UniProtKB/TrEMBL annotation:
Belongs to the LysR transcriptional regulatory family. It comes from Pedobacter gandavensis. This is LysR family transcriptional regulator. Gene3D superfamilies: 3.40.190.290, Winged helix-like DNA-binding domain superfamily/Winged helix DNA-binding domain (1.10.10.10). Pfam families: HTH_1, LysR_substrate. Residues 1-58 form the HTH lysR-type domain. The keyword Transcription applies. InterPro entries: LysR_HTH_N (IPR000847), LysR_subst-bd (IPR005119), WH-like_DNA-bd_sf (IPR036388), WH_DNA-bd_sf (IPR036390).
Amino acid sequence: MSDFRLEVFYTVAKRLSFTKAAESLFITQPAVTKHIHELEQQYNNKLFVRKGNRIELTPAGELLLRHAEDLFAIYRNIDFEMNALVDKKEGLLNLGASTTIAHYVAAPLLASFRKKFPDIRLNLINGNTEQVEKALIEKEIDLGIVEGKSKNQEISYTEFIRDEIVLVCGKDHPLAKKDQLNPVTLKDYAFVLREQGSGTREVISHALKSVGLKMSDLKLEIQLGSTESMKAYLMNSSCLAFISIHALTKELQNGSLSVIDVSGLNIERYFYFIHLQGKLDGLSEVFLRHAQLTHNLK
């Protein structure tokens, strides 16, 4: 239903590159330039301005982008609801998931959803919780799943599944055979931690306060951007790390990593679905209900 010129503009605005937009849309760069020029003539306003080797949106361009995002969301909802009248569910759903969820929870969920709704196309991006929330606010995704709640008033949070974060070490670490650890001794060990902006790191920081510790009390050996890299590092070092239990199934089964019990320290949280405040669009609601039903049955 949408005006292709508006789709071209939206793609350029998101990538801030005529070349990348042309590649994404499978048209030539001159064709992109022509569509943008026609829109600028129609609205009697420049939409982009060149700054050195890059382009930026003008105020008129930023305004048009906001309206384009709203329009495309309406178009997707129209397509979904009209198809639903004939019991046909189809369309495109853009999803975002924070790193732990994307790697260890989302894949089987996406597969089961596609099996049930083969005409609904899914697109998943991943990053840390902060990045997924930013993508939602900027309307790059329709629905996200993150590792905890922030205080952003633009976002609505819905509980999904419970998670536990546990202290982990390699199989040859002296603590691998220890029954329980006193929290104060955590200061004596080197740690691998996730990057700033990670939902996991924020939850750990909050939980440590319950046993009289701060994140700064832990000796940081290295900061890594993914759980997989953290697990590999633990297997080849004498470090400790806090990791989601959902990410440890294989390693606990084969014995390559061990969980250490810390007296008085229980780190539990929920994974949350996030969407912008207001009514969910049809596709997002179908996905959320499928996810809740799938995990309630387990």
